[in-house]
Amino acid sequence: MKPVDYRSSGVDIQEGDKAIALMKARVRKTFTKDVLSDLGHFGGLFRADFSHMKEPVLVASTDGVGTKLKVASMMGNYGTVGSDLVNHCVNDILVQGAVPLFFMDYIACGRLEALIAADIVSGLAAACSENGCVLLGGETAEMPGFYNEGDYDVAGTIVGLVEKEMIIDGSEIRPGMIVIGLPSNGLHTNGYSLARKVIFETAGLSPSDTHPLLGTGTVGEVLLSVHRSYLRYLEPLLREKLVKGMAHITGGGIPGNLSRVLPEGCGAHIRQLWSVPGIFELIRELGHVDISEMRKAFNMGAGMLLVVDENDKGRVMELLRMSGVEPFIAGEIICGDGITFED
Amino acid sequence: MKPVDYRSSGVDIQEGDKAIALMKARVRKTFTKDVLSDLGHFGGLFRADFSHMKEPVLVASTDGVGTKLKVASMMGNYGTVGSDLVNHCVNDILVQGAVPLFFMDYIACGRLEALIAADIVSGLAAACSENGCVLLGGETAEMPGFYNEGDYDVAGTIVGLVEKEMIIDGSEIRPGMIVIGLPSNGLHTNGYSLARKVIFETAGLSPSDTHPLLGTGTVGEVLLSVHRSYLRYLEPLLREKLVKGMAHITGGGIPGNLSRVLPEGCGAHIRQLWSVPGIFELIRELGHVDISEMRKAFNMGAGMLLVVDENDKGRVMELLRMSGVEPFIAGEIICGDGITFED
C-alpha cells in the first residue's frame, strides 16, 4: 500500500513557501518604524505609543471581497482585489473618524498557486501603502475540496485609531442638515452576486464584451474597477470637525447604510440627481431589476455619504474639491425616520 | 421576462438579519467596559488606555480553522470550531508573551443558515470569554457558488497586548536549556487534509465509527476535540519571566515551529517519550504514514513547547502543575541547527 503524505492530501507546503517568498518584499514595503516584527513570526508586533492622545480608541473592522472574486477569477486578474478589500475596510473605520494603523489578511483557496497569492498580496500592499497602513501579517490557507479551481477567498481585518472625542457616531445629526455624496468608482465590493447573475447568466455577456453604456472599458474591466478609498478626501474635514455623520455605501445600499447613522427622529430624503455610472444602468436594463431592488444592492454611484450642517456646506464642498474629488448634494435630513427617494 | 432580484441571485438578506439577531446576545456577553461600540456599527470600538504600561505593543495574528471545518460539516456540529479558532489565535500571540484584547471573526458560506452561523459564533464567544478576550466584531459573508452546501469557512484575527520588554522572541535561548512540552488535545487545528484522506478515504471509516486506539469516543468526536488554549497555564510563567522561547505546534509540526524561535547556532534534540494520543497512532497505521511526515503534519501530542533555563526547570514544572496541566520534558537545546528526534 502506498503511504499517504501531506502533498497527496492536497496541501503543498513548498508552494506555500514559494508564495511567502514572493510576498515578503511587497509586504515589507508597507512597514514603518512602528513595526517591531519581521515576517514569519507567529504574530505581528505594532508599537502602541498613543501617548500624544487624550483617550485613544482602537477601531477594528473585518470584511471580505465577496463574489467580486469570481470576476477576478473569470478574468484571471487577481492584482486589484486586494486593493478593493483594503480600501473597503479603510472606509468602514473612516466613517467613525478613524485612520488606519494596520491590516491583517486572510487568503484561502483549494490549491495554492504562489503567483496568484502573490498577486493578491501585491494589491493588498499597494492599497495599504496608499492609505498609510501597515500590512502587518496574514494567513494563506490551502483547503483542498473547499474551493473550486481558481477560486480564492480574500478577507481581512483593519485596526485603526481615533481620539475618543473625535468619534463620529451620527448623534449630532439634526433635521435640516445636508447630505453630501462622493462618487463611487462603480460597484465597489457589493452586489456582485446580482450583477454576475444579470450580466453573465441572464444576458449571456462575457467579460471581454463591450457595451455603449460602459464607454471604452469591457464588462470585466468595469466590474473589476477598484473600490475607492475616501481617506485622503475626508481627512481635512475630520480635522476641522465638519462632519456630523458618515455612511460607507456597501451591501444594503443607501437605505441600509445611511439609516445606521441616523439618530432617533431623523430620516433622510435623497434626491438622486447625481450621475449614475453606466454599469448600474446596464444591470437595471438587462435584468429588468426594480429600482428599489437596485438601491438595496448597489451604491448607485454614491460610495460615501456625509451629513454636514447647512452652514458648513460651502466650506465642506470647497475642502472636498481641493482634495481632488467632485462632491454632490445628495439630499437632506428630515424629521421622521427611514430613507425616501426622489428621482 | 422575470425581473432579477437579490434573493434569486442567492443572497438572502433576511436570513442574514436573523443570524445577526441570534448572535447578538452571545457576542455582547464577551463585552467589557473597554468596548465603546454596540453591534451594528461599521467598526468595533475598543478603548486603548495603555497608560499603565511603559512601552505597549500590539500583537496581531490571523488564522483559519482549515479543513477541520469539513469534519464539522460531516458531523453537523458547528458549535466548537469557533473555539478552535479563538484558542489557536490566543496561543499564536501567547508565544510572544501577549495576552488577548479582542477578536474579529470572518464566516463565509454559499448559503447562509442562521442557526449554523449562530452556532459558530457561540463557539467563538465561549472561547473569547474563557480567554478574557472581547469578540469585538466580524463579518458573515454569503457567497453563492463559492462554497458547497453545508461548508462554512471560519477565520479570524486576534489583537493582543504585551509590554515591549516582556516580548519573548527566543533570542535568549542557549544550548543546554530544557524543552518542556504541554499536552495537546488531539489534532488541534492542523493536518486535517491528511487526516481526512487517511481516515475517511483510504480506510473508509465514517465519523460515527469507533476504534480501540481512540478509547470511548467516535472518530468524528475525537477529530472535533477542541484546540486547547494554553493562556491560563502560561500566564504565571510569563509574569515571572521564566520562559525563554515558546512554540505553538501548528502546521509544520515541531520541526516547522520550534525552529522559528531558535536563534542562530541553536538546534533542538527532541526525545519523544511523552504519550502520543491514539488518534495519531490511528492515522499512522491506517495511512502507513512515514513518521517524519507525521511529525511535519501533526503536533503528535505536544501542543505547546517552552524553552526554559535548566535552573528554572523545577519551578516551571511546579507552576505548570499548579495551573492544572501535566507538563513533560520534551528535549533540550543543543549547539548546531535544526531539530533532531530520538524515539
Q: What's the name of the CATH homologous superfamily of the largest domain in chain A?
A: PurM-like C-terminal domain
Tell me what the CATH architecture of the largest domain in chain A is.
Alpha-Beta Complex
User: Can you tell me the overall shape of chain A?
Assistant: globular
Low-confidence stretches of chain A: none
Overall average pLDDT of chain A: 93
Query: Based on helices, strands and strand pairing, what is the structural class of chain A?
Result: alpha+beta
- Radius of gyration of chain A equals 21 Å
**What is the N-to-C succession of helices and strands of chain A?**
HEEHHEHEEEHHHEHEHHEHEE
Q: For the record, give the distance between the C-alpha atoms at the N and C termini of chain A, rounded to a whole number.
A: 71 Å
Tally of individual helices of chain A: 11
Q: Please indicate the count of domains of chain A.
A: 2
Sheet-strand content of chain A, in percent, reads: 15-25%
CATH topology of the largest domain in chain A: Phosphoribosyl-aminoimidazole Synthetase, Chain A, domain 2
The order of strands across the largest sheet of chain A is: 7-9-6-10-8-11
Q: What is the helical fraction of chain A, as a range of percent?
A: 25-40%
The top-level CATH class of the largest domain in chain A is Alpha Beta
Q: Most extensive interface: pair and counts?
A: A-B, 91 and 89 residues
Instruction: Give the beta-strand count of chain A.
Output: 11
What is the makeup of the main sheet of chain A? 6 strands, mixed
Oligomerization state: homodimer
